[in-house]
Amino acid sequence: MRPRPHIPPDIEEYRDEHWQREGSLQVQAPLDAERFVERNGFAACLTDARRPGPSLYVAVCGRRDAVMPRNVQKDPEASLTWQLKDQLVRRGKTYYAKLSRGKAMFLAPRMIPYFHAVWGIRKSEETRRLSKDARLILRVLRHEWEMGTADLRTESGVTDRRTFTRALDELQATMLVVPSEVVYQPRFTYIWTLGIGRFPTPLTRRVRRDRAVREIARCFLTGAGLTIPGELARVTGLSRPEAGLGNRALVAEGYATTPARGVYQLVAPGASPVSD
Question: Is it the case that residue 49 has pLDDT exceeding 80?
Answer without folding.
Answer: yes
